[in-house]
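Re: [ENG-882] Designed sequences occasionally contain unexpected residues at chain ends

Forwarding the minimal case from QA. Structure tokens:
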């Protein structure tokens, strides 16, 4: 038994709702730091880590341990490197406590908290919360969106990705990440508008029918995409890699790194895509920069 078959539909819905509560609580931690002093440093790969990341992740990991005792957790900030180098458990959580840290530190609101339950190499329940925008998405078998009210998810409503509009697609891009490979992929699609949006929020916007495509050829990590991947898929969209298949999770031999992918509101768009087999490499920095406020 693999993937979604390990968990009943009602069980997946209950898990997703619990993850949404946890992600909203972590979002309150982030809101306390946002647009204020937030000590941070650069990790060896050049990506930033902040006090907000660390505190939010500690809350998430503790909450998962209390709600799902014994379940393994792979978290961006706190999972030791030696644990990332071995095969994960059959079922485990992937956690990104603050996706879009650079935008967060710059004071922009489109950062997110991402939590996903992986079973059989695919997410089966997930939550994605955008604290700066007061929006939350979660999905077991179906995708729900709700406002964030006083640090909790409010009343939710089902959402669905939209068919490709006849007047042209709305593409979402990252204001801090761009490369020729991504531009070439998008040029093959009937894109009429491109909007710059930070973090995994892009998956939620496509799932809600507010945009149509997000292509990323540059490097990302599994915890960046797992929650959004499931939320979009449960809303009727898809996330595809070169060759048209889904992202597989728990790939410890690859260091939990993703290759190129495309998030699509209308799965029929996949036929017009030609993702490169590999994307541009991320520059690696070998020295940790001192923390500062």
């Amino acid at each position: 038994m693999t993937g979604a078959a390990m968990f009943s539909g009602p069980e997946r819905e209950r898990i997703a709702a619990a993850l949404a509560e946890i992600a909203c609580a972590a979002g309150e931690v982030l809101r306390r730091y946002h647009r204020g002093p937030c000590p941070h440093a650069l990790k060896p790969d050049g990506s930033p880590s902040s006090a907000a990341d660390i505190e939010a992740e500690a809350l998430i990991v503790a909450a998962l341990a209390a709600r799902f005792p014994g379940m393994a957790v792979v978290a961006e900030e706190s999972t030791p490197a030696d644990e990332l180098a071995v095969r994960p458990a059959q079922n485990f959580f992937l956690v990104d406590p603050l996706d879009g840290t650079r935008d967060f530190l710059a004071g922009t609101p489109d950062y997110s908290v991402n939590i996903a339950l992986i079973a059989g190499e695919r997410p089966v329940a997930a939550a994605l919360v955008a604290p700066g925008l007061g929006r939350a998405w979660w999905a077991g078998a179906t995708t729900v969106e709700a406002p964030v009210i006083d640090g909790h998810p409010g009343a939710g409503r089902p959402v669905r990705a939209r068919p490709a509009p006849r007047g042209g697609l709305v593409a979402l891009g990252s204001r801090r990440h761009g490369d020729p490979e991504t531009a070439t992929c998008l040029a093959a699609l009937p894109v009429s508008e491109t909007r710059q949006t930070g973090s995994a929020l892009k998956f939620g916007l496509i799932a809600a029918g507010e945009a149509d495509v997000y292509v990323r050829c540059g490097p990302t990590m599994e915890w960046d995409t797992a929650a959004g991947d499931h939320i979009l898929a449960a809303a009727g969209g898809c996330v595809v890699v070169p060759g048209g298949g889904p992202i597989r999770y728990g790939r410890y031999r690859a260091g939990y790194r993703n290759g190129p992918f495309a998030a699509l509101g209308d799965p029929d768009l996949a036929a017009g895509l030609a993702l490169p087999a590999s994307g541009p490499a991320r520059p690696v920095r070998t020295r940790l920069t001192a923390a500062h406020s």
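QA comment: On inspection the terminal residues look reasonable. Residues 33 and 52 are 6 Å apart (CA to CA). Proposing we downgrade this to a documentation issue.
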